[in-house]
Amino acid sequence: MEKEEDYYGKNKKLKIVDFVLGFFGQYFINSTIVGIYIGIGTLFSSLIPNNYTELFFSIFIIPLIIAIIWLNIFIIKKFKKENRKYISTGIITSIVLTIFIPMLIFGACIIALSNSF
To answer: Are 26 and 72 in contact (CB under 8 A)?
Structure first.
């Protein structure tokens, strides 16, 4: 069994470019999806009366969250199969820095404030 050739070889610049592409590309893709959903939601919000906000939430917001999560997982798997692991690493790093670290800081603040009372 032959060893599969590495996409990057010894090219360090290509590794850095792919990492940056994954890191900032994730924000671009997610903001594009959110923009499309906001446009669709704005068009259809006039059709839904104000007392049906739960319906609006379930129709537009929940599928948006599912679409973003699914798309990120799909892109990570796609680039892993193509042996461009630094794009996948950039996406994962971006998600961790954007979501999980602020959640940990918020949780630590809540714990610290709840024990002081």
So the answer is: yes
Non-local CB neighbours of 87 within 8 Å, separated by 6+ positions: 18, 19, 21, 22, 25, 79
CA distance 67 to 61: 10
Q: Where are the domains of the chain?
A: 12-115
For residue 106, the surrounding DSSP H or E stretch is helix 101-115
Predicted TM-score of the model (pTM): 0.74
The rounded distance, in Å, linking the Cα atoms of 86 and 45 is 40
CB 95 within 8 A of CB 24: no
Question: pLDDT (tens digit, 0 to 9) for every residue of the chain, 117 residues total?
Answer: 455 567 888 889 999 999 999 999 999 988 998 898 888 877 877 777 777 767 777 777 888 889 889 999 999 999 999 888 999 999 999 988 988 889 999 999 998 888 765
Which residue is listed with tokens 């959903």?
Answer: 37
For 21, the 3-state DSSP assignment is helix
